[in-house]
Design goal:
This protein is of the alpha/beta class. It folds into three domains: 8-101, Nucleic acid-binding proteins (OB fold (Dihydrolipoamide Acetyltransferase, E2P)); 108-259, Hypothetical protein af1403, domain 2 (Rossmann fold); 349-390, no CATH class. The chain is 44% helix and 21% strand. It has eleven helices and 13 strands. The chain has a five-stranded mixed beta barrel with strand order 1-2-3-5-4. A hairpin with a 4-residue loop joins strand 2 and strand 3 (53-58). Helix 4 (147-159) packs parallel to helix 8 (252-259) and helix 5 (177-191) runs parallel beside helix 6. The chain is rod-shaped and about 210 Å long. It starts with 7 loop residues before the first helix and ends in a 5-residue tail after the last strand.
Length: 395
């Protein structure tokens, strides 16, 4: 029988399959050495301990999300897949994730404390208090030299410059920091001089932030009579303090924005209302000015009124005189017409034309000769003068 002859490629492939099939994803610890970074973004290095070493590769997709810069000499814990690089037959570890050495214990301690305090109801929603909408003073528990403090003060000065700020300085890193933070929170409660409290620190590693993951600081936050906003680390950092606080902010600056939100909104609304009031008042004043101008055009001084009244009186007198003259002329013309008409009927005028009026002895006007008989007395009136006589003949 002939034994099957394998190619090197087939041998390396089978060896890789055996390794990957028999070793699950696991954590290993060691010191970083021989580190190189390829232009592709992949990182190559070795992990070693006192007696052995192994080649490792961390591909670019994994290396890009590493929150710190990997360097030679660092003690790390790596989550790896045991494999073999077939092209060279090199035994290697493909690194899926990495943390600094000792973080495994820290994460376990974090999880244990979180579970313990959560089971006690320390993180329950019903324990959370609503932040005051308009705090009269704001307290800050942080390091006096921290950049986070400057960020908070800058934000508060911009958003609520009139609100007093009280700083309770404390250590925020190191073995004594947790106790110092708890003492500062207790001091703020004893002095009772602020309406809301910010507990803050800038970003850092889990070791840097560990003071906010200890039970003493968490209980001090939960027991505070003053509402507490935690602003520890960066947006992706979570600490026990975040769960114990009444409200978590993603950053120290965000914490300042949360506690000043009411005043900031009020200032903005007040500014808008002030602007609207200015506009309204300006429009009303302009309208009143227009009305005043219109009334001013209509307004006449007493002297001008008297002058106008005199002018109007003169005009009325002239109209009256003209009307009276016209009426008199009309009356005269009518009187003349009537006079002419009456003149035609005036006996005197008739007599002046050669006629005479004949009256009998009784003074009655005689219109018919039959009214006389011979010997009757007769009186004649002429245009000028009169005469008396007797009737001799009646025809």
């Amino acid at each position: 029988m002939h034994t099957a002859v394998l190619s090197i490629s087939e041998l390396n492939r089978r060896a890789r399959q055996i390794l990957e099939g028999n070793f699950p994803l696991l954590w290993v610890a060691g010191e970083v050495s021989n580190l190189t970074r390829a232009t592709s973004g992949h990182v190559y290095f070795s992990l070693k301990d006192a007696t052995a070493q192994v080649r490792c590769v961390m591909f670019r997709s994994r290396a890009q999300v590493l929150p710190w810069r990997l360097e030679n000499g660092q003690q790390v814990e790596a989550q790896v897949l045991v494999s073999l690089y077939e092209a060279r037959g090199d035994f290697q570890l493909n690194v899926e994730a990495m943390r600094r050495a000792g973080l495994g214990q820290l994460f376990e301690a974090f999880a244990r404390l979180k579970a313990k305090l959560e089971s006690e109801g320390l993180f329950a929603d019903e324990r959370k208090r609503t932040l005051p909408m308009y705090p009269r003073s704001i307290g800050i528990v942080t390091s006096a030299q921290a950049a986070a403090l400057r960020d908070i003060l800058t934000a508060l000065k911009r958003r609520a410059p009139h609100v007093p700020v009280i700083i309770y300085p404390t250590l925020v890193q190191g073995d004594q920091a947790a106790g110092a933070i708890a003492a500062a929170i207790d001091k703020a409660n004893q002095r009772n001089e602020c309406d809301v409290l910010i507990v803050a620190r800038g970003g850092g590693s889990i070791e840097d932030l560990w003071a906010f993951n200890e039970e003493i600081s968490a209980r001090a936050i939960a027991d505070s009579r003053i509402p507490v906003v935690s602003g520890v680390g960066h947006e992706t950092d979570f600490t026990i303090a975040d769960f114990a606080a009444d409200l978590r902010a993603a950053t120290p600056t965000a914490a300042a924005e949360l506690v000043s939100a009411g005043w900031f909104s009020a200032r903005r609304e007040l500014k808008q209302q002030y602007t609207q009031l200015q506009t309204l008042m300006r429009r009303r004043i302009e309208n009143r000015m227009q009305t005043l101008d219109l009334l001013a055009h209509r307004l006449i001084s007493p002297q001008q009124q008297l002058a106008q009244m005199r002018q109007h009186t003169h005009l009325l007198q002239a109209r009256l005189q003209h009307a009276a003259h016209n009426a008199l002329q009309k009356k005269r013309a009518r009187l003349d017409r009537l006079g002419d008409a009456i003149g035609h009927l005036n006996p005197e005028a008739t007599l002046a034309r050669g006629y005479s009026i004949v009256r009998n002895a009784a003074g009655e006007i005689v219109r018919d000769s039959a009214q006389f008989k011979p010997g009757d007395a007769v009186h004649l009136r002429f245009g000028k003068g009169s005469a008396d006589g007797h009737i001799d003949i009646v025809e």
